Amino acid sequence: MVSQQTFRLSARPRGFHVVTREIMEQLPDLPQTGLLHLFIQHTSAAITVNEAADPDVLTDFESIFNQLVPENLPFLVHTLEGPDDMPAHIKAAMIGHSIMLPISEGRLALGTWQGIYLCEFRNRASARCIVATVYG
Fold first, then answer.
1. CA-atom Rg of the chain in angstroms
2. Closest residue by Cα to residue 100 from 34, 51, 9, 21
3. Measured distance CA(136)–CA(59) in Å, rounded
4. Separation between Cα atoms, residue 21 and residue 38, nearest integer Å
5. Cα(77)–Cα(36) distance, rounded to whole angstroms?
6. Cα–chain-centroid distance for residue 79?
7. pLDDT tens-digit profile of 70-104?
8. Which residue ranges make up each domain of the chain?
9. Is 41 helix (H, G, I), strand (E, B) or coil?
């Protein structure tokens, strides 16, 4: 059986945010076993899985990505939407727009310290749309 729904994550400031609980609240009851595919419908934000226990990890991710792809690079051409836009596209491409998670015993089979991240790369972002597809 396959089910699919689209929902919005609340707007967040630029940075990395653990959104596991918010996503789970939007989903129907999960099957005993299966897969959950999550796709973010935006080009300046990303979704991934990483450590959700220590908030310093979120800060470090933001710092590293800002060092890798800083704003105001003099050679960027796509600048109409502000100095954070093109770097946001690059950062989103580096992390990715979808994740696939296993479902076991009716729950996501995340590791002990893992959580789902919304990676927000714009300075002033709106709510972000997620397409969730459950296979099982």
1. 16
2. 34
3. 35
4. 14
5. 37
6. 23
7. 999 999 999 999 999 999 999 999 999 999 999 99
8. 2-135
9. coil
Q: How far apart are CA 33 and CA 90, in angstroms?
A: 35
pLDDT the model gives residue 132:
98
User: Around 51, how many Cα atoms within 13 Å sit in the side-chain half-sphere?
Assistant: 9
Contact of 36 with 30, CB cutoff 8 Å: yes
Q: Where are the beta strands (DSSP E) in 29-125?
A: 33-40, 45-51, 98-104, 107-108, 114-120
Report pLDDT digits (tens) over 8-39: 999 999 999 999 999 999 999 999 999 999 99
Q: How far is CA 110 from CA 13, 52, 114, 117, 133, in A?
A: 25, 11, 6, 12, 17
Nearest to 86 by CA among 40, 129, 128, 44: 44
Contact 12, 84 (CB under 8 A): no
Beta-ladder partners of 9: 128
Region 36-61 average pLDDT: 97
Q: Is this model's pTM higher than 0.90 or not? A: yes
CATH code for the structural domain at 2-135: 2.60.120.460
Contacts of 121 (CB under 8 A, 6+ apart): 14, 44, 45, 46, 65, 84, 87, 88, 91, 92
